[in-house]
Amino acid sequence: MLWLMLIFTMRLCLKQLLSYHRWMFEQHGKMSNTTKVWVALVRIFSGRKPLLYSYQGSLPNLPVPAIKDTVKRYLESVRSLMDDTQFERMTKLATEFESSLGNRLQWYLKLKALWAANYVSDWWEEYVYLRGRSPIMVNSNYYGMAARAGNSIHSFFLYRRKLNKEELKPVSSATSQAQLLYIHNTVQHWQDSDYIVVYHKGRYFRLRVYQAGRLLSPREIEFQIQRILDDPTAPSKGEAKLGALTAGDRIPWAKARAKYFSSGVNKRSLDCIERAAFFVTLDDDEQGMMGDDPAASLDRYAKSLLHGKCYDRWFDKSFSVVYYKNGKNGINGEHSWADAPVVAHLWEYTLATDSFQLGYTAEGHCKGEVDSSLPQPQKLKWEIPAECEEQISQSLAVAQALADNVDFHVFSFREFGKGKIKKCRVSPDAFIQMALQLAYYRDQKRFCLTYEASMTRLFREGRTETVRSCSSESTAFVRALEGGESADVCRRLFRAASEKHQLLYRMAMTGAGIDRHLFCLYVVSKYLGVESPFLKEVLSEPWRLSTSQTPPQQLELFDIVNHPEYISCGGGFGPVADDGYGVSYCILGENMINFHISCKHSCPDTVRLMKAEILCCVRKVDKKTLPLEGGTALPRQNYFSTSQQSSRNCQKQYLADVRDQGKEPGGDEEFSSL
């Protein structure tokens, strides 16, 4: 009893300690005495060698913000997006909601928070992801990029072994690891599988990766993959494009599943796919940066990972791995079970293990011996009737139209990165968000509601919260920059905007965000059968600029500085709004930022915010706002010729800078006079 009481007391103390979040709001590099004491106590109560899930029971529950605080912050977030008449109307709706229906809904939400581990996560998963009836391909699933096959499958299972034994190092004692439970199989958590399902040329194969309890070596997995590649069997009737059912609308797939896949051989094969550890596609296309136009080939690579041919992926799996003919590969993640950083954690481990631990022979094969008695991969059997084939064709048509509509562009910014930005004591994320605000304003001549995802993993079963990056401070900065204000004014406004962005980010991470609270209030109103004009309008507002950063999390796995060729391009997603953009970015090392930008061809107003516009705006924000290390303002570019620069190069630099200012250059004469 004494031992149990001691354990319970230590866990309770740790939970109280992890409820302290003021450390996030302290100035960088300046830690208060309270926080120093807190850090010491957390180390004492955390233990010396914690397992992966050791802290999950000690994480605090996500708090329910006060109605008045959420409404106030919401009105503040939309002030710069509305004129006086619109804002006055919205203020009236918000005030009426706060003083009447809002308090009733809040009471029910607090009741739920008393018994639920997280008052948001289950509703977020159900209503945002699982109940959606539109295709999850493009609209929900996302992708990541990298290279090679036999080694990486072996590495995925090494990761799973560490995950099951809780040998992975927790990111920190204060973050939830709950999403890792669902990284293999599906949202329905099956017992661990000892096989994967592989798709190649219209056929589905079951490939066991364990033999007599032993994980196959990379060379043996390569050997089995080669057997599938060499298999001459033709697809059975209706099998080749079966995966299109998972790419189209959800209702037809649900009906087809109930009618054609609920019994017999079809049910057994479908169960095999859904119980597999993950799904693998052997794609006969070649992808990656190649050919005479590497930039365009990288765009095609991204689009292929996002949707492929619309039938050669199984979009319902937690994640699917795609291997191309030339050895390049990537990953497509389903979004309902977890957020992108969880898959990125797996992907980083896999890439590093592939390249720096497993390696390859001089001939390019995986290392290890092959057991010649390995059974052949088992081809799955299907009996697809003509009516089901018709449904497959209809789902494929829906998915193909969606895929063809997506425009994608991927590029790296290498002129500077977080190294320079952090030396100037500016948040790299805030810097990029300000550049994106400028790019959108120059593209659309207006501002828009902007979504940036932040994590709430400081709380039990935490998922995400929204940072509303378009603020009054950011719009004031952009207007000053575009209006030709002095560098001092722009720098002051930029500092205010970036600090406000950081404050919003920290509030979102510590449970004081706006959007998840409003979302849950809306769900409660639907359960009660009451209408709220305020909530209905708030939740119908489009996110025309949807952004997300995927930060590297396991930098100790390999040296980015000395091995830049092993850096992944990161990943991306489709646009949330039909007339909007999806922007994913990854800050890698000290001198590189990767961007993945998507929009839709069907909207003629969203075809310009691609590489040139964002690069231009990143440079412009840099020149007008970042001081030198010594604290003085950045000088204007020196356009005069030096021993390293020709006059023509100087002229090109001058013309580029003039265009960065939104002006038309005057040509040789103007340059000569300068």
From TrEMBL:
The active site is at H335. SUPFAM superfamilies: CoA-dependent acyltransferases. It is an enzyme of class 2 (transferase). Residues 1-19 form the signal peptide. InterPro entries: Carn_acyl_trans, CAT-like_dom_sf, Cho/carn_acyl_trans, Cho/carn_acyl_trans_2. It is found in: Mitochondrion outer membrane. Its main location: mitochondrion. It catalyses: (R)-carnitine + hexadecanoyl-CoA = O-hexadecanoyl-(R)-carnitine + CoA. This is carnitine O-palmitoyltransferase.
